[in-house]
Amino acid sequence: MVLQISAACRGSFVARSVLVGVVAIGSLLARPGLAAGQVTEPASLMTTPVYLFDGSRQVSQGTGFFFGIQNASGVIVTVFLVTNYHVVTGHSPGTALPPKGDRVVFYLHLDKNEPSQVKQIALPLYSQSGVPAWEQSIEHPEADLVLLPLPKTSYASIAMYVFVESHTKSDIRIRPTSGATLLGYPFGFSDTKNRLPVWKTGHVASEPQVDFQGHPAFLVDVSAFPGMSGSPVLAVVNGVYEDESEVMRTGHVLRLLGVFSAMPVIRSETPGIADTSLQLGYVWKATLIVELAHGYHPR
Question: Which residues contact 96 (CB under 8 A, 6 or more apart)?
Answer without folding.
Answer: none
